[in-house]
Amino acid sequence: MWRKTSGSCLCYSCGRLNRVDAAVCFYCGRRNPGLWGLAPVLGRVLRELAFARLVTVVCVAAYGAAILLEPGAALRARGVFDLLAPSNAALLVLGMTGSFAWHLGWWWTLVTAIYLHGSLLHIVFNLLWIHQLAPAVGEAYGQARLAVIFTAAGVIGFVVSNVAGVPLTIGASGAVFGLLGAMVRYGRSRGGVFGMAVFRQYWHWSLVIFVMGFLMPGVNNLAHAGGFLGGYLAALVVRHEAETREGAVHRLAAVAVLVLTAACFVLAISTAYRTLR
């Protein structure tokens, strides 16, 4: 059953035990602490859903679709950096962003472009970093807040680069920098020996990867900087587990992010179909 109509659940606000059908939380006074019986199932779904695995599936599926839309383009590689590179036309169909999309009002590309990649090396590099960073962010913030931070960082990174006039851009690297920003914020907030160790490690990684971006062709360093800032600010808003326990509000936000992402891909493909028809 989707709804739990009896028994207990954790309040979405304070994380303390209440009756699932309580009108208000006994501890903090929030109304409908069980979210009309949906809080337990939301928590169970998000606990079982590893966000890094979901991102990998979507990225690989989108990359495969881009290759299949124009297979000949992927075989025209001139070097390792554009090995198995999808065509711009295929990426436009799936939701590539850039200043052109900004001027056309295609806001959904800020989300879809996170999951698109321009070559085999591009997608492998980003997915390796996602799998390196997501477990730490998930442990510090929870899986639901991880989804929110990742998406917010990717979107803000593209907003920065689009406003600055970068014509075409894709990739999860802005969101990756957002995960780094979230961990930098976590380390600063925790303080002490452990917190400072976390801060130094993730700040060092951020600087190294950012500098590397200037040494490789076609890297959108503006999106990296914007993504780091976006991840830091998103982490500041949602807070981490040591400050407040993950609740149903965070889970609802994560579900909203997943629904929004799916809707953005539908908008991207339908818009491309109408435009190219």
Produce a short descriptive summary.
The protein has 277 residues and is an all-alpha fold.
Folded structure, characterized:
This protein is an all-alpha fold. The chain has two domains: 8-41, no CATH class; 49-276, Rhomboid-like (Rhomboid-like fold), CATH 1.20.1540. The protein is 65% helix and 2% strand. The protein has helices at 39-48, 51-69, 71-74, 88-94, 99-104, 109-112, 120-141, 143-164, 173-190, 192-213, 221-238, 248-276; strands spanning 8-10, 17-19. Strands 1-2 form a two-stranded antiparallel ribbon. Strand 1 (8-10) and strand 2 (17-19) form a beta hairpin. The longest helix is centred in the last third of the chain and has 29 residues, at 248-276. 45% of the residues are buried. The model has no long low-confidence stretch (mean pLDDT 87).
